[in-house]
Amino acid sequence: MNAQINPDEVEFTAIRAQGPGGQNVNKVSCAVHLRFDIGASSLPEDIRTRLLALSDQRINRAGVVVLKAQQSRSLEQNKEDALRRLQELVDSVAVLPTVRRATRPTRSSQRKRLDTKTRSGLQKALRGKVSD
């Protein structure tokens, strides 16, 4: 199941990037804050509930995903990077994990384990001190 994000539901804010870069960092706003409201989105209901259930620090209490992208010196590339990361987050919850069913060990494997334990215990018992 592939849920595509509608770009109209994403809000971008240009901010100044952190880190080295000389004077360019101080005068050009090329980093991007992406805000995506999960509750108001057009995503399917099950994907929205799984996104809200995630314990991800990028999702705040109001159910808004906030991503910061500042890898590139280009505003457009940072927007694309933030959208890609948001899509990866949505895709990660779109796939249902397989339900694990508890199984029991077979009788022969139980018997082998107990036989090995007995053999090991006997071998260790023979390692005791030798009495004259």
Task: Give a structural overview.
The protein has 132 residues and is α+β, with helices and mostly antiparallel strands. It has a domain at 7-94: 2-Layer Sandwich (Double Stranded RNA Binding Domain), CATH 3.30.160.20. 40% of the residues lie in helices and 14% in strands. It has 4 helices and 3 strands; from the N terminus they run βαβαβαα. The protein has helices spanning 23-27, 45-53, 75-94, 107-125, and strands at 10-15, 31-37, 64-69. Strands 1-2-3 form a 3-stranded antiparallel sheet, with helices on one face. The model has no long low-confidence stretch (mean pLDDT 87).
What is the fold named in CATH at topology level of the domain at 7-94?
Double Stranded RNA Binding Domain
Shape: elongated
Number of helical segments with 4 or more residues: 4
First CA to last CA: what distance? Answer: 76 Å
Strands ordered across the widest β-sheet: 1-2-3
CATH architecture of the domain at 7-94: 2-Layer Sandwich
Rg over C-alpha atoms, rounded to the nearest angstrom:
28 Å
Largest sheet: 3 strands, antiparallel
The percent range for strand residues is: 5-15%
Order of helices and strands: EHEHEHH
Number of E strands: 3
In the CATH scheme, the class of the domain at 7-94 would be Alpha Beta
Class of secondary structure makeup: alpha+beta
Overall mean pLDDT score? 87
Q: Low-confidence runs (pLDDT<50, min 5 residues)?
A: none
Percent of residues in helices: 40-55%
